[in-house]
């Protein structure tokens, strides 16, 4: 018989995968909640290596969720002011437009502030494009990390 704690843990890990494409769900934290729910309350022990690996993957997902877009803006040459403002712009637009609002907010903020700060249109557009690629690459990485967490968790609990 399948244990209820296992079902809850897997449900949280699946929700974490969904959260990697739905920004209203914190993918990394939800996935970590699934792992640690089972570690703390599950009947079968989970190996130390699996727990450490899953925890590190979850923490990496949390970092990607929060900082990939602004870090991509910074890497493209945007100022610290623009980087911080893009993070705030993404959060605010998330509330207005939903998931697409993060991309619109981050990219739009970078573009507008770069123009305001004296960049020409081409440079502002280039930095905005790099930022958009960073946000989208972050989503792909989050999906891969959370799917990997789900697979490793299920395998480590059911096979070992």
TrEMBL record:
The chain crosses the membrane at residues 35-64, 84-113, 133-159. InterPro entries: DUF456. Keywords: Membrane, Transmembrane, Transmembrane helix. It comes from Halohasta litorea. This is DUF456 family protein. It holds the Pfam family DUF456.
